[in-house]
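Late entry, evening session. Most of the bench is empty. Finally got around to the prediction I had been postponing all week. Sequence below, unchanged from the version circulated by S.P.
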Amino acid sequence: MKRKEADLTPARIVEQLDRYVVGQKDAKRAVAVAIRNRWRRMQLSEDLREEVLPKNILLMGPTGVGKTEIARRIATLMDAPFTKVEATKFTEVGYVGRDVESIIRDLLENAMLVVRDKARRGVEAKARKKAEDRVLRTLVRDWKPGDHDIEMFVDPETGVTPEQREMLKKRLGERLRAGALDDREIEVEVRDGSQELGSIFGDQSFAQTGVDLGEFMKRLRPPTSSPRKTSLMTVREALETLSGEEAEALVDTQDVTAESIRLVENSGIVFLDEIDKVAGRTAGTGPDVSREGVQRDLLPLIEGTTVSTRHGPVKTDHILFIGAGAFHVSKPSDLLPELQGRMPIRVRLEALTEGDFVRILTEPRNALTKQYTALLGTEGVKLKFADDGVAEIARVAAQANRSHENIGARRLFTVMERVLDEVSFEGPALKGQKIKVDKDYVRHRVGDLLEDQDLGRFVL
C-alpha cells in the first residue's frame, strides 16, 4: 500500500526496504535520505526550490548484492517514474548505440503509462456505463425473430417499437449487469489500431528525434475518419474492449502529458548500472575509446539540461541519478572529475555471506522459498522447507560463488532450480503429496555437482 510522501520518513523508507532487501543498511540509509530530501525540497518556496539539487548516489559493490533491487523498490514505494539502463549500451554511440537522451525519453514513456493508467481508473465507472450503452444499442438494433433474450420483453410479432426501446434497454441492462448475457456473441464496431500510421512505423521509429509521428498524423486526419472495423465477440469481451475505448476517450491527453512531465522532472529516478565499465580515460582505438565520450554525454543530463521529447521538453535538473558498479578494476576516481562531483553520496555494499543467503531465502516478502511454495501449491503439492534444508541451499550457493564466479544472490536461483527440478517437472502427478526439502534432499540433488568442479561450473 502506497503511503503519503510526508509519512515516508527515512526510518520508514528503510523499514519498507527491509521487507525485500536483506542487509546493506548504509545503502538503504543513503537512498532514504536522498528520497526524503526530494520531499523537503517541494516544501520550500518556489525560488529556493529550484536551487536545491538532488543528492545523486554512487553504489559500489559486487554483482547480486542488491544495488538494482534497492533502486527498483524505492521507485515502487514512491510511485515514481523509474528506468534502469546499462551504461555500456552507449559505448558505441554513433555506430550502433542510442544517444544518452533516450534515457529521459524512456523515463517519460514509463511515466506516461503510469499516469494514463491512473487516469483511466479515475473514469472507469463512466467508461463502463458508456460501454454498456453501446452494447445495449447493438443488441436492440440487431434483434431478429427468435432472439429469446429480447422476446421475453417484447411481442415477437410486432418487434421492438420505438416506444419500447428505452424500456427494453433498461430490462436488458439489468440482465447485462447480472452477467446473464456474457456468453452471447454480438458484432461491435471497434477502433482498428492496425491501420494507424504510427503503428506501421512503430512507436520507437521517431522517438529519438523527439517527434510523435502518430500524433502528427492524427491532427492531419479529420476527427470522424478514425479507422474502425467490425468484430464478432462475446458480450463480456465487447464490454472490456469498449470500456477501454471509452476510458481512452474520456482521458485528457494534455493533462496526462503535463502530469507525466511534472512527475519525471520532480520525482524521476534513473538507475545507471555498470557505470564502472565506462570509467577510465584510456587512449587509443576500439570500443574503449568511447568510454570517456559516454561520460561526457551523461554529464549534461546529470548536471541539468533540457531534453526534447515527442511529448515536449523535459528538464533533468531534479531527476535523481543512482549510479552503480562493481568497481573491481576501475575506481570512482577514474570517472571524470565533473561526474564525480555530481554523485556526492558514495556507498559501498558488502558481499553477501552464507548467513545472508539464509535470510534472503526466508525473510523478504518475495523470498524464493515462499515463491516456490506458492507456485507448487497451485498443483496441489505441499512444499515445506526445513531449516537445515534452507541452510544447505545457502551453503551450496556460497560454496559455488567461492569456487566459480561470485554472482551474489543470483546464485540462489540456480541452486533452487536444481534442487526443485524434479518436483517442478512432476508437479501435476504429485497432487496431494507433501514434500519436505531438508538437508539430505538438497545434498542428494546437488552434492555431486559440488564435487565435480568442471560440471558444477556449467550447471551451478
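Two things to note before I forget:
The chain has three domains: 5-116+261-348, 117-258, 354-447.
Residues 102-122 form the longest helix (21 residues).
Will write this up properly tomorrow.
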